[in-house]
Every structure is written in structure tokens, then in C-alpha cells.
Design goal:
The protein is α+β, with helices and mostly antiparallel strands. The chain folds into two domains: 74 residues, Roll (Ubiquitin-like (UB roll)), CATH 3.10.20.30; 64 residues, Orthogonal Bundle (DNA polymerase, domain 1). It has five helices and five strands. A hairpin with a 2-residue loop joins strand 1 and strand 2. The protein starts with 6 loop residues before the first strand and ends with a helix.
Length: 159
């Protein structure tokens, strides 16, 4: 049997050679092999938003993204947003969520953070309606949606 070459990608600024098969979901690599557990397994169908990461800056559901699809690309997880190896300083979106006490259980929030970061990079002047629309695919049962939207709108100034 021929051994497959590892899939090479960049995760949070560090090169990774994934030994897992090319059809392995990106989320499996992130959580099980790299210990980056901020991205969550929710529905497993890319519909709830809990597993969203940035791939070359674009939000993508990592539970439905096979490794072959991200070969050679840059993947950023919620752990990699701060830009420091220790994650000492929260990203402005993360800080705004803390300041507004917008995260409750924390299950969905990492995917929401990643989607918000992508939105604000693309449209730094995103309106409240833009934020609501961008988060439409994210399921959150905590009832903190109003605070989440307000926090992201407030983060516009700092991003």
C-alpha cells in the first residue's frame, strides 16, 4: 500500500504536516492532533457555526472541510487571533465580547468570533444589520445574541 504524503498547511502561523488522511476533517486535525479545542464540534454538517475557522482569511466550517481542501493554506483558529504565541492579548473582537459580557456558555462563541473577525476585516464599517446577517448561520441558545451583536459593533473601532 502506498503511503500518502502529509498534508501541509499553516495553522496559526506555524507550518503543520498533517499525517491524517486527506479526507480527514480539518476540525479533527485541529482538536485531536494539535490540541486546539477552541473550535467546537456542533452539528457536524457545517450548519451551526461552532466550528468556524478562517482559511486564508475567509470563514469556513472546519467540520466539513477536508484536509486536502486546505493544503498549502493558512488556517487561523480562535487561539491564533491574538497574534502572539501565548495569546496574551485578546483580539479586539474577543475583548469586546468580554467587555459586553456577551459570551455565556462559550460553546458557539469561538465560531461567532471568527465570523465577526472576517466580517470586520472585509467591512470595517459594518452596520448592526450587517452583523446580524453575518451571524445568521450561527446557532446560539444562550439568549445573549443582542449583547453579542452590540459587542461586535463596538469592536469596529478597535479592529
Amino acid at each position: 500500500m502506498t503511503e500518502l504524503a502529509p498534508t501541509e498547511l499553516i495553522v496559526n502561523g506555524a507550518p503543520v504536516a498533517a499525517a491524517a488522511g486527506p479526507d480527514t476533517p480539518l476540525l479533527t486535525l485541529l482538536r485531536d492532533e494539535l490540541g486546539l479545542v477552541g473550535s467546537r464540534f456542533g452539528c457536524g454538517q457545517g450548519l451551526c457555526g461552532a466550528c468556524v475557522v478562517l482559511v486564508d482569511g475567509a470563514p469556513m466550517p472546519s467540520c466539513q472541510t477536508p484536509l486536502w481542501q486546505v493544503s498549502g493554506q493558512e488556517v487561523t483558529t480562535v487561539e491564533g487571533l491574538s497574534g502572539t504565541p501565548t495569546g496574551a492579548a485578546p483580539h479586539p473582537v474577543q475583548q469586546a465580547l468580554l467587555d459586553h459580557q456577551a459570551a455565556q456558555c462559550g460553546f458557539c462563541i469561538s465560531g461567532i468570533v471568527m465570523r465577526a473577525v472576517a466580517l470586520l476585516r472585509e467591512r470595517p464599517d459594518a452596520s448592526e444589520d450587517d452583523v446580524v446577517e453575518a451571524l445568521d448561520t450561527h446557532l446560539c441558545r444562550c439568549g445573549a445574541h443582542g449583547r453579542i451583536v452590540a459587542a461586535i459593533v463596538a469592536a469596529r473601532e478597535a479592529v
